[in-house]
Amino acid sequence: MWHAQPTRLTLRFIRPPGAYAKRSEPDAIAQVDLRTDGTAFVHAAKTHPPLSAVEWRGLVRLLRSDWGVVRVEYERAEQLSAFDAGRV
């Protein structure tokens, strides 16, 4: 029997509320790899204008609530960083 497990998500952040229904361009796009250990690796993120810390925390909350993510990793300036998704 086959079992399908999503391993990559494409996330789009759109301001203001209601802009998604109008097919507005996203303010941010990120690719997220989901790993079996509950870790998500965020890569290929593009934002314009930059997102606030509150808006980034919203992404983490979505990953935690919808996908069971417990740890988020990302790379910035060639440095790997991570944080506990339960503390956001």
Describe the structure.
By secondary structure, this protein is α+β, with helices and mostly antiparallel strands. It has one domain (8-87). It is 17% helix and 39% strand. The protein is built from one helix and five strands. The protein has one helix spanning 53-67, and strands at 8-13, 28-34, 39-47, 71-76, 79-84. Strands 1-2-3-4-5 form a five-stranded mixed beta sheet, covered by helices on one side. The protein starts with 7 loop residues before the first strand and ends with a strand. The model has no long low-confidence stretch (mean pLDDT 89).
Task: Compile the SSE list and pairings.
Blueprint: E1 8-13, E2 28-34, E3 39-47, H1 53-67, E4 71-76, E5 79-84
Q: Please report which band the strand proportion falls in: under 5%, 5-15%, 15-25%, 25-35%, 35-45% or over 45%.
A: 35-45%
Order of helices and strands: EEEHEE
Looking at the structure, what is the overall shape?
globular
Number of strands: 5
Short note summarizing the structure:
The chain has 88 residues and is α+β, with helices and mostly antiparallel strands. The protein is 17% helix and 39% strand.
